[in-house]
What does this fold into?
Amino acid sequence: MTRKLEGKVALITGSGRGIGRAIALKLASEGARIVINDLDAEPAQETVAAIRAAGGQAVACVGSVAAPDFADRFIGTAVSEFKGIDIIVNNAGYTWDSVIQKMTDEQWYAMIDCHLTAPFRILRAAQPVIRTLSKAETDAGQRVVRKVVNISSVAGLFGNAGQTNYSAAKAGIVGMTQTLAKEWGRMNVTVNCVAFGLIKTRLTGTAGDSTANIDGREIKVGVNPGLLAAMEQTIPLGRGGTPEEAAGAVYLLCTPESDYVSGQTLMCSGGLTGI
It folds into this structure.
């Protein structure tokens, strides 16, 4: 039985851990060749090793998506290693919360840079490659559909207290998605968005003294246990989602069955329709 993504080249930011890793493993299991990215080399290489152990193909492009040179390195890795681009998933992200009167410019720009500027740069860098590939395919009488899946959040659709920076960035990626769906349709590229609700990862687990080092900053991670329980009670399915379930929503928009779906935002939230 032919796998749905056989031979496709998929680039996934933030795919060494959490949701991104689950997306990478899912797309690889369907035959895609993967460019893995993570801030740190160790988790990136672990995901590459897991894919290769399962018989797939993967390489790593380590570094911060917010770095000015990252987009060119990322796209360049796909072209040099796999000779093409078929799927781009802009997944990398984290939160750095505060109420607006206490939020610093550094907090604001950290979220905008990671969640909005980085995808913009990646897609800008990818456009000439995709345009060239698309023109060659058109001249040969072929139609190859490519996929972009941007990751948003229910916070970007409805807002969330303490997340002015994150919510604004995640709202912005929805607008970028809708705009590029209009610009890139002529190249047979569908551009869609998945807005996650509560997905259980190391960044949303029970809060303690845990921090994550992100671009040299020690960011506190986790959610207060009482707040986490209250959040789950508001979800119609009664629980937070798993990274594998989150990956499933992204996968839907990467399959041939979604070739005529573009400019859309799919909520993956267990039925939660507001905050």
Summary: Helices lie at 18-29, 41-53, 70-82, 105-139, 154-158, 164-184, 225-233, 243-252.
